[in-house]
Amino acid sequence: MTDSGIQETVEAEARDDIPGLYTGAFPIEVEGLCNAFGDQVIHEDLSLKVRRGEILGVVGGSGTGKSVLMRSIIGLQPPRAGRIKVFGIDIADHTEEAAGVRSRWGVLFQGGALFSTLTVGENVEVPLKQFYPELDRELLHEIARFKVVLSGLPDDAASKYPSELSGGMKKRAGLARALALDPELLFLDEPTAGLDPIGAANFDTLTRELADTLGLTVFLITHDLDTLYAICDRVAVLADHKVIAVGTIPELLETDHPWIQEYFNGPRSRAARASFDAAKGAASAASAPAASAVDSDAGRKA
Amino acid sequence: MTMRDWADFTVEDSGGGTTIAITGPLLVSTIGKLDHALRLFDGPVQTVDLSRVGVIDTVGAWTVSRFADERQAKVTGASEQATRLIQTVRDAASSAAIQPDRAPLFLRVFGDVGDKVVGLGHGSIRVLSFLGAIIAAIGSTIVHPRRFRGKSLVRQMELVGVSSLGIIGLMSFLIGIVIAQQGSVQLAQFGAETLTVNLVGRITLRELGVLMTAIMVAGRSGSAFAAQIGTMKLTEEVDAMRTIGVSPVEALVLPRILAAVFMMPLLGFYSSVVGIIGGAVIGDLTLGIPFLTFLSRIQEVVPLHDLWVGLIKAPVFGLIVALAGCYQGLQVQGNAEEVGLKTTAAVVQAIFMVIVIDAFFAVFFTELGWG
Question: What's the pTM value of the predicted model, to 2 decimals?
Fold first, then answer.
């Protein structure tokens, strides 16, 4: 029914390299990845597959190359060797197809990495303008507004500059920008680091909700044990330059790698698990929908 | 060109009223046409039918919910996911501005003028307090010489002085060549080519050597001072220093100022010497004055006070360049754009002030009889 005038202008403005949705099983496939800075080896023959629709937590001691792995996957760190496929496309290829991949992921950097000369709302509009120039200006503003609120910011934050925001608000604004394109794949680099416990718990809930509602695949780097227990479907452990194990937390507990044992059986981990179990108990005693949500959580972990 | 599967709609009029039936995937990548068309759609709508919609994302849900809410229409046929998404975006709806409020133009003009005037006043106070802080830092360094950062000073002297030898040398050599070549053409009209030696010797030692060096140091080091200190302010390094009890003026500003003050006379003298060599090369090649003769003539025709004029001006220029760089660096606050603005300001102010002071010096030394 749209009249031909609109059709023509929209089609003329639209980019022609926007791909369709990904339907394969593994949006991220890393094979034999090697990274090194000078003599310092970061990754050696690292392999990892991320399943579609899961929240994968990535853990590892400081300096084990979690962020470098993320930077490699999103193409910011050219690897020494190995193959990285995102949505089945080799990101090392300099083809139009590989460029189109960028319209299907969102990245939240550790410090938020907001463009400091733009307001939060304008920050959210940047990726939209880049990939979908055909969109109406008014629609852009509307999208920016609801993404800002969706990320848990007060609505008046949209007109603020990053320097006027607190650290936690910057993270949420970064999330709003990462979600701008309704991506299929979301990279989060320590999203809850530096947030207060209430803010961190809210951020976890938000991530889980978004992942469920939008069917997101999430690659989540974290040190936060509460986050691991609360929202991750599987956890990948980085140590000795490799991913030494991937699986649910109970599965990981069965392996006898000393670092994994120390990590998940340490006092902080026990506390996190206890509080998670307590929350689970309270929730199943409460209303039915909440219980079913937790059941599905438990189902994933089993 | 890949064809995109754009979302579209059909209008159906049944007994109950008008129904808008939306078809196709409702994604941010396919919504462009539908959104434009729905904005232009005129007339009452009772129902929005989503039963023929494929995949949907938040932007699709937003477009539907905005349209339906505007026309007070019912949404029917929505899948479970669509219902969930529409509810999510409805809850997140807001009417907040994307950009901060801006006053009308004429008010902004007056506002900006006022801000500039107030800024000028505050700026003068800040400059004075900056100078005061430097004098205080010098005082406390004299009282506690152990607190002085010798390593930092040496490092800055290397950056300001040694690493700029190449570019300053090349620049001075070329300037010497240009002066000798152009000067000799003009002087030849009076048959006075031999005076080229006087021209090159006096102008490089007295004026150009030091002036061009100051401009180069402003561009190379003054800008670096502003950008370094400005970035350190943004990353809270300067604040961290203060909390540890280290004075940023002592740790950052003083070594840079001293480095510039110490290195400028050396660089200025070096520049003059290389300029004279450049002139001598041209003298040898085109004027028939042998290279060594040119150099020994310099000794006879250039009065010693020309050298002093240059050497006295140099540390003053160095002080101006370093002060402007460090001061502007410390004024950075807020965002990355500020670093750029302040760096530009540092270089422009430094060069401008150097030229103004040079004019004063010119009059001063002539009055002194060092003409």
Answer: 0.71
